[in-house]
UniProtKB/TrEMBL annotation, chain A:
Residues making up the signal peptide according to the UniProt record: 1-27
GO BP terms, alphabetized: peptide transport
Residue ranges occupied by any Solute-binding protein family domain in the UniProt entry: 78-416
CDD domains xrefs: PBP2_NikA_DppA_OppA_like_8
Keyword Transport attributed: no
Origin species: Candidatus Dactylopiibacterium carminicum
Gene3D superfamilies: Dipeptide-binding Protein, Domain 1 (3.90.76.10), Dipeptide-binding Protein, Domain 3 (3.10.105.10), Periplasmic binding protein-like II (3.40.190.10)
GO MF annotation terms: peptide transmembrane transporter activity
One GO term describing the cellular component: ATP-binding cassette (ABC) transporter complex
Designated name of the protein: ABC transporter substrate-binding protein
UniProt xrefs under PANTHER family: ABC TRANSPORTER SUBSTRATE-BINDING PROTEIN, PERIPLASMIC BINDING COMPONENT OF ABC TRANSPORTER
TrEMBL record, chain B:
TM ranges: 9-30, 99-122, 134-161, 181-201, 242-264, 284-306
Topological category with respect to the lipid bilayer: Multi-pass membrane protein
Ranges for domain ABC transmembrane type-1: 95-307
GO CC annotation terms, alphabetical: plasma membrane
Pfam families with a match to the protein in the record: BPD_transp_1, BPD_transp_1_N
Keywords: Cell membrane, Membrane, Transmembrane, Transmembrane helix, Transport
Protein family membership: Belongs to the binding-protein-dependent transport system permease family.
CDD domains linked: TM_PBP2
Organism: Candidatus Dactylopiibacterium carminicum
A molecular function (GO) term: dipeptide transmembrane transporter activity
Cellular compartment(s): Cell membrane
Protein's recorded name: ABC transporter permease
Organism superkingdom: Bacteria
Length: 536, 317
């Protein structure tokens, strides 16, 4: 062949190849994510629908001042700088916290992030007379930042927040508080409902499209300030599919690439079809929270310990098709707050029966107790089968449990009222089964153990009162060194376990099923997940 | 005729008013707090009180009803507690999706029901009758939820011919009348059509069998009319009853099916109701129930108006 013709034909062959490679290199990567919610969570700044919603429309579109490290799965995350590069407590007045803000950060609408935006956002959720106050967003975040008393601007990139009392754990509250753009709110006629479809934050994703109850398209924010957290996928499509079986079908059918919480029954089929199942330690526990008020059958520590020794937790995990992990306490044993409890949770029927006999009970002469449970709902795992399992296990050691079954919403009323509340006391309810989020020291430990949070002042439901624990909690509040804090928290936790404050059964593992098309997804040991880690 | 229509319209007013009372009051009888849609489980009492006041839920129920009715007659059903979006637009979007699904399901149900029913009626006692009867019994007895799942397993997973869920690749807002979108409609519509198909089959079968035994049919045959001509007379005489039954069935379909729409994540009124119930989103629940009930009222009104047009004796009665 003529060398010239050969060259031309080589070029002709190479051109389409190069073009196709170019197209492939620039083709948009899309991950379709089937989420378990019935609607897309609020997009205005503070997501509704609980802690699990922050990964979808919270930390994707927005950033907090202090962030949670959610892009590691091999160890528990920690607090890391977000929109604040530094925070420190005022040495003279330890109620005052000074935050140094990150410079050069822009909202998606190109307006600048600065101290004014922080104050404006604090007013948005805490100052009910402010023009931008939004009751919906306020309701989401106010209970999460209970320590904030006041705040002020110190400079263009510096703000001061004053807490109601000295609270060294205050930084843990701030990953819940997200910053939205004041300029966008102004531009959209000061209407939060309009902001919902055109939100503007500083986060690693922008909202491209929102079809209520059907989908939300998040696109990569290429100008994101944290270059280590640039999204690995160009577009993430969130598809609400509340029914677990429908989610699994959508995954099997190829309509979505990732789903949350696959139904346990479908796991073998998913695995056999080449889908990956990922799960991790998750800050959640499924317990029976005992009342220790006089008259409650659980006032006797031997009974509480016997209950904890009567449960074959591995069998519960099996019941959940592996989608749970056995509890050793309120938090997972790998947590820095676990400590060294002397009472080891395990399955030991002989020891449990012995304790019950010492307390004066047996299978022939059982102790009777009434527990309030939900028929299902968020965080409750497989509520009814698991409760029936526990009921049968407790019967083996002489604890005759009867259930008051209510809807989850109703259960929350009973929870807020405390064991002494009329709605519980009148029905002789002496324990409550409610899945607890245990993501930070307050949520995991303080709110259940501090005697000042005895219901109705908080959710110390059963009236737990341990002066040593109270003293340690007081010390934690004034201890600003993280390691010392962790040590004190570990002491409180081991006291909870040694006192058998609750019957801890299992932890959730927040399972996800992934299509083989998903090359990477780092599942953090938290309810906060980082969707920037998804790679297709 | 005009007087008849006017009378029917006047009758519809108290029915509509009763519907508003029932749809408003009923949701208050259910346990739970509407603020659970927005307040976290451990929200302190002061947050709950502030929210109750912000949403007007601290006012007496009759006052809330009065304010709601005044807005509702102007087409404003308020704002959803959970999302802050306008209930009217939320419901109308869902109604549009349900109409699409229900329309297609009704088409399948009515056509198949009339066909099977007529065949069974004409071949009364034969194997065709037995098969049609069996199909109609299965249609009315089979649980929707189960059938939806089985169809999905068969035709979405085992043989991936149809999507397992959703209302189109881009969501219902980007619906197009093409094959790609039509595929999303097939499984939920077939699932939804089995009950009306079963009921209409039974009705048509009984009516046709009865008509064929009537003297006027024997007379028509004696006069040498063809089978087709006789069928035309039979069809005309069975039509008013079939229309009334089909109207009711279409009304049920318009109401959406909570189970079918949930199984297929179809964003219609059933899916919306399901969400509103679980979130205790009272304005959304009231608005959806009201619109669905009004569908029934309007459909019944239409059937009442159409029936005397087909059978003038009814108008005179």
């Amino acid at each position: 062949m003529n060398p010239c013709k050969l060259k031309i034909s080589k070029w002709l062959l190479a051109l389409p190849l190069a073009f196709s490679l170019h197209t492939e290199l620039h083709a948009e990567t899309v991950a379709r994510y089937g989420i378990s919610m019935a609607d897309i969570p609020l997009t205005t700044g503070q997501p509704d629908r609980g802690a699990g919603a922050y990964q979808f429309t919270g930390h994707t579109l927005y950033d907090p001042l202090i962030a949670w490290e959610a892009n590691v799965g091999t160890r528990p995350g920690k607090l890391i700088p977000g929109l604040a590069t530094e925070w420190k407590v005022d040495a003279k007045d330890q109620k005052k916290w000074v935050f140094t803000l990150r410079k050069g950060v822009k909202f998606h609408d190109d307006s600048e992030f600065n101290a004014d935006s922080v104050i404006w956002n604090l007013d948005k959720v805490l100052a009910d007379k402010a023009a931008q106050f939004d009751a919906k967003q306020s309701a989401q975040v106010r209970p999460r930042v209970p320590s904030i008393d006041s705040y002020r601007k110190l400079g263009d990139y510096s703000v001061e927040i004053t807490t109601k009392e000295i609270d060294a754990l205050f930084p843990y509250q701030l990953p819940w508080f997200l910053i939205s753009s004041p300029a966008q709110w102004e531009k959209l006629g000061k209407d939060w409902n309009k902001v919902a479809s055109q939100p503007s934050g500083t986060g690693p994703f922008k909202l491209d499209k929102l079809v209520p109850r059907e989908r939300a398209d998040l696109v990569k924010n290429t100008a994101y300030w944290d270059k280590t957290r640039l999204a690995k996928t160009d577009r993430i499509v969130l598809v609400p599919i509340p029914d677990a079986m429908t989610r699994a079908n959508a995954l099997l059918n190829g309509q979505v690439d990732i789903i949350e919480t696959p139904p346990p029954d479908v796991l073998p089929q998913l695995k056999a079809s080449g889908f990956k199942l990922v799960q991790n330690v998750t800050p959640h526990v499924w317990p029976y929270h005992f009342s220790t008020y006089p008259g409650s059958p659980w006032t006797d520590i031997r009974v509480r310990k016997a209950a904890n020794l009567a449960i074959d937790r591995d069998a519960v995990v099996q019941l959940m098709s592996g989608l749970a992990s056995p509890a050793k306490g309120q938090v997972d044993a790998s947590s820095p707050w676990f400590g060294k409890p002397t009472f080891k949770l395990g399955y030991d029927l002989a020891a449990a029966r012995k304790l019950m006999a010492e307390a004066g009970y047996s299978q022939a002469k059982p102790l009777k107790a009434k527990i309030i449970i939900a028929q299902g709902g968020t965080g409750q795992m497989l509520s009814l089968p698991m409760n029936e399992f526990v009921q049968q296990s407790l019967a083996e050691v002489g604890i005759d449990v009867s259930f008051e079954v209510v809807e989850l919403e109703n259960l929350y009323r009973h929870w807020r009222a405390g064991a002494k509340g009329d709605i519980n006391a009148s029905k002789n309810i002496t324990a409550i089964n409610l899945g607890y989020v245990t993501a930070d020291p307050f949520y995991a430990i303080t709110r259940f153990t501090d005697s000042k949070y005895v219901a109705p002042n908080g959710v110390n439901w059963g009236g737990y009162n341990n002066p040593k624990v109270d003293a340690a909690l007081e010390k934690i509040r004034t201890t600003f060194d993280t390691k010392t804090q962790d040590g004190l928290l570990a002491f409180v936790h081991q006291s909870m376990v040694d006192d058998a404050q609750m019957l801890w059964v299992v932890h959730d593992v927040n399972p996800h099923a992934l299509s083989p098309k998903v090359k990477e997804f780092v599942q953090a040991q938290h309810w906060f997940q980082d969707l920037t880690t998804i790679r297709m | 005729m005009f007087a008849y229509i006017l009378k029917r319209l006047i009758y519809a007013i108290p029915i509509a008013l009763s519907v508003t009372v029932v749809s408003f009051i009923l949701v208050y009888l259910a346990p739970g707090d509407p603020l659970s849609a927005i307040a976290p489980a451990d929200a302190p009492e002061e947050v709950i009180i502030a929210l109750r006041s912000a949403y007007g839920l601290d006012q007496p129920v009759p006052v809330q009803y009065g304010l709601w009715l005044m807005r509702a007659v102007q087409g404003d059903l308020g704002l959803s507690i959970a999302t802050g979006r306008e209930v009217t637009s939320e419901v109308m979007r869902a109604v549009g999706n349900t109409l699409l699904l229900a329309g297609f399901a009704a088409l399948i149900g009515v056509i198949a029901g009339c066909l099977f029913g007529a065949l069974a009626g004409y071949r009364h006692g034969s194997w065709i009758d037995r098969i049609a009867t069996a199909l109609s019994v299965i249609g009315v007895s089979i649980p929707h939820y189960w059938l939806g799942l089985v169809l999905t397993i068969l035709f979405s997973i085992w043989r991936p011919w149809f999507p397992a869920m959703g209302a189109g690749p881009g969501g219902s807002s980007e619906w197009l009348w093409d094959l790609e979108h039509f595929r999303y409609l097939v499984l939920p519509a077939v699932t939804l059509s089995v009950i009306p198909m079963g009921i209409i089959t039974r009705t048509v079968r009984a009516l046709v069998a009865d008509m064929l035994g009537q003297e006027f049919v024997s007379a028509l045959r004696a006069r040498g009319l063809s089978g087709v001509a006789v069928f035309r007379h039979v069809a005309k005489n069975t039509a008013p009853t079939v229309l009334a039954v089909a109207g009711l069935q279409i009304g049920y379909l318009m109401g959406g099916s909570i189970l079918v729409e949930t199984v297929f994540a179809w964003p219609g009124t059933g899916f919306l109701l399901n969400t509103a119930i679980f979130q205790r989103d009272i304005p959304l629940l009231q608005g959806t129930i009201l619109v669905l009930c009004m569908f029934f009222v309007v459909l019944n009104l239409l059937v009442d108006i159409l029936q005397p047009m087909i059978d003038p004796r009814m108008g005179r009665a």
